[in-house]
Design brief:
Strand content of chain B: 35-45%
Distance between the termini of chain A: 54 Å
GO biological process, one term (chain A): gluconeogenesis
CATH topology of the largest domain in chain B: 60s Ribosomal Protein L30, Chain: A
Pathway (chain A): Carbohydrate biosynthesis; gluconeogenesis
Cofactor (chain A): [4Fe-4S] cluster
Keywords (chain A): 4Fe-4S, Gluconeogenesis, Iron, Iron-sulfur, Lyase, Metal-binding
EC number (chain A): 4.3.1.17
Order of helices and strands of chain A: HHHHHEHHHHHHHH
Shape of chain B: globular
Order of helices and strands of chain B: HEHEHHHEEEEEEHEEHE
Oligomer: heterodimer
Radius of gyration of chain B: 17 Å
Largest sheet of chain B: 6 strands, mixed
Helix content of chain A: 55-70%
CATH architecture of the largest domain in chain B: 2-Layer Sandwich
Number of strands of chain B: 11
Helix content of chain B: 25-40%
Radius of gyration of chain A: 18 Å
Structural class of chain B: alpha+beta
Number of helices of chain A: 13
CATH class of chain A: Mainly Alpha
C-alpha cells in the first residue's frame, strides 16, 4: 500500500507515476477499504449527488431555521444576481451554492459533512461552480472530491478538522484548502499547483475562530461558507497563474496546528467569547433558551 | 490514517455531526440494546446537548434513532411527530451529570413487552458515539463493530460458553470486556467482532441458562 503523510509525500507519489492527485487518493482508498475502484468511485459519486440535491433544495427554499437566524439567503441572492451584480458568474454561483447547502444543513436537510457539517457548503460551492464554468464532465468533479479528501486526510494527520480543537480555520479553512486543490486539478493544473492553492487558501484563513451565536451552526457559519468557497476559487486561480505560496503546504498545515493549540478554549466552539458574546447574540440566546 | 469517506462524509441530516448525526446514532443504538420497540422513553440531556440541543434538533434526532432511523434519514425533522403517531411516548429533560462528556444523553426505555434498559452515551464528534453505561454497568461501546452484550450469572464457565458459541460460528472477537457490580451476582459482558454476528449465534447465546439477557447490536 502506498503511504503518504504529508503533501510532499502525496505529490511525489503523483509525480512518480505521472498521475493526478485524485488517482493516488483513489488507489489509497481502494487498498484501505479492500474493495474495488468501482465501489469507491460510486460512493463518491453518491456524495456528489447529495451535494447537488442540497444545492437545488437550498436555492429554492424560503424556510427559516428553528432559531430564525438563517434561511432563504441562497434564493434571495439568486434573484438578485439574475439581473445585477458586480462579481462574475463563477463567483456568484459559488456564493449561491455554498449558501444553499449550508442553509439546507441548518434546516435539518441532507448534506455531506465535508469535512464537517459546519463547513459543508464550501466544497459543493467551489467545485460545482467551477465545474459549470469549466464545462467539466461529472467524472472530473468526482475526481476533484477525491483530491479534496486527500488534502483533508493530510490536514487531519498534522492539524485538525474540528472547530472544538482548532477553531474555524480547522473547519472552513480546511474546507477551502481542500476545495482549492480540487479546483486546480479540475482546471488542468499540476499536483504542485494544487498544493500551492491549498497553502494559499489555508494561509488566508489561519487564526479564524469558532464563536457561533447560541452555539448553533448558523451565525456566522452559513455566510462564512460562501466566503470560503470564493476564497478557494481565488487561491486556485492564483495557483493556476503560476503564483506560489512562499510558505510551502506542509508548513502552513503545521502553522494551523500551532495556531489552533494557541487559541483560547473560549474561541473554539464553546460560544464563550467573540460573536457569541455580543449583546445581540446574548439576546438571541436568552430568547431561545427561555422557550420550551 | 483515516479513510476518504471519513473526510468527505458522512452523508447526514444537518446541522451538526455531533448534536444531530451522533444523537441519532445514540437513539438507534439504545433501541438496539433494548432489543425491541420502546413504548416509553425518558431522555436526560446533559451539557451542550441540553444547552443547544433544541436548535440542533437533538431531540428530533434521538427520537429518530429510537424509531430505528439512520443519521441520513430525511424523516429526522418529523421524528417527534412520527414517534407520537407510532405510540412512542418520549419525554426530554435537562439533567446536569457530574463529570460527563459535554454531549451526553441518558436514555431510559420501557419496551413494548415491558423489557427495560437504560443507556448512557456521548457524541464525541464527526457523528461518532461512545456508549458509556448500560443498565448501570460501565461500558465502552462505539457501535462500529457487531456487538453481543450479555447480562449473566457471575460464575465460572459462562464467559467461555458464550465465546465457544462464537468460535463455532467462526466469529473472531476483536474486543471483549466483562464487568460486574458485585461478586457472584450479575455480570455484564461485551463482545465486539470483526465479522457480522448471526441471529442464530445470538439465539444460542440467549438460550444459555446462565444468560439472563442477551443483546445484539449491529453496526449502522
Amino acid at each position: 500500500m502506498e503511504r503518504f503523510s504529508t503533501f510532499m509525500d502525496l505529490m511525489m507519489l503523483a509525480n512518480k507515476g505521472q498521475r493526478l492527485l485524485s488517482e493516488v487518493i483513489i488507489e489509497y482508498e481502494v487498498q484501505k477499504s479492500r474493495t474495488d475502484r468501482e465501489a469507491v468511485w460510486q460512493q463518491m459519486d453518491q456524495c456528489l449527488t447529495v451535494m447537488e440535491k442540497a444545492v437545488e433544495k437550498g436555492k429554492n427554499s424560503q424556510e427559516k431555521s428553528v432559531s430564525g437566524m438563517v434561511g432563504g439567503d441562497a434564493r434571495q441572492f439568486g434573484e438578485y444576481t439574475r439581473e445585477n451584480g458586480l462579481l462574475g458568474g463563477v463567483v456568484q454561483k459559488a456564493i449561491q451554492y455554498a449558501l444553499a447547502v449550508s442553509e439546507v444543513n441548518a434546516l435539518m436537510g441532507r448534506i455531506v459533512a465535508s469535512p464537517t457539517a459546519g463547513s459543508c457548503g464550501i466544497l459543493p460551492g467551489a467545485l460545482l461552480a467551477a465545474g459549470e464554468v469549466l464545462n467539466a464532465p461529472r467524472g472530473k468533479i468526482v475526481a476533484g472530491l477525491f483530491t479534496a479528501a486527500g488534502v483533508g486526510l493530510i490536514i487531519n494527520e498534522h492539524a485538525s478538522l474540528a472547530g472544538a480543537a482548532g477553531g474555524c480555520q480547522a473547519e472552513c479553512g480546511s474546507a477551502a484548502a481542500m476545495a482549492a486543490a480540487a479546483v486546480v486539478e479540475m482546471a488542468g493544473g499540476t499536483p504542485d499547483q494544487s498544493g500551492q492553492a491549498m497553502a494559499l487558501a489555508l494561509k488566508n484563513m489561519l487564526g479564524l475562530v469558532c464563536d457561533p451565536v447560541a452555539g448553533l451552526v448558523e451565525v456566522p457559519c452559513v455566510k462564512r461558507n460562501a466566503f470560503g468557497a470564493v476564497q478557494a476559487l481565488v487561491a486556485a486561480e492564483l495557483a493556476l497563474a503560476g503564483i506560489k505560496s512562499v510558505i510551502p503546504p506542509d508548513e502552513v498545515i503545521a502553522a494551523s496546528y500551532e495556531i489552533g493549540c494557541l487559541l483560547p478554549p473560549s474561541l473554539r466552539e464553546t460560544s464563550d467569547a467573540g460573536l457569541a458574546k455580543t449583546p445581540t447574540a446574548q439576546e438571541i440566546e436568552a430568547k431561545l433558551f427561555a422557550e420550551k | 490514517m483515516k479513510g476518504v469517506f471519513d473526510i468527505i462524509g458522512p452523508v447526514m441530516i444537518g446541522p451538526s455531526s455531533s448534536h444531530t448525526a451522533g444523537a441519532t446514532r445514540l437513539g438507534k443504538i439504545a433501541r438496539a440494546i433494548l432489543g425491541e420497540e420502546p413504548s416509553r422513553v425518558l431522555v436526560k440531556l446533559h451539557g451542550s446537548f441540553a444547552k443547544t440541543g433544541r436548535g440542533h434538533g437533538t431531540d428530533k434526532a434521538i427520537a429518530a434513532g429510537l424509531l430505528g432511523f439512520s443519521s441520513d434519514d430525511e424523516r429526522i425533522p418529523e421524528a417527534l411527530n412520527l414517534a407520537a403517531a407510532a405510540g412512542m411516548k418520549i419525554e426530554f429533560v435537562r439533567k446536569n451529570l457530574a463529570n460527563a462528556h459535554p454531549n451526553t444523553a441518558v436514555i431510559e426505555m420501557i419496551g413494548k413487552s415491558g423489557r427495560q434498559a437504560s443507556v448512557m452515551g456521548c457524541s464525541v464528534g464527526g457523528g461518532n458515539i461512545i456508549v458509556t453505561r448500560i443498565n448501570g454497568y460501565q461500558v465502552e461501546l462505539t457501535g462500529e463493530y457487531a456487538t453481543l452484550i450479555t447480562i449473566h450469572e457471575d460464575r465460572p464457565g459462562v464467559v467461555s460458553h458464550v465465546t465457544q458459541v462464537l468460535a463455532q460460528e467462526k466469529i473472531n472477537v476483536a474486543f471483549m470486556r466483562v464487568s460486574r457490580q458485585e461478586r457472584g451476582a450479575e455480570a455484564l459482558m461485551i463482545l465486539e467482532s470483526d465479522e457480522p454476528i448471526s441471529r442464530q449465534a445470538y439465539d444460542v447465546v440467549a438460550n444459555i441458562p446462565a444468560v439472563e439477557v442477551a443483546m445484539l447490536v449491529l453496526p449502522s
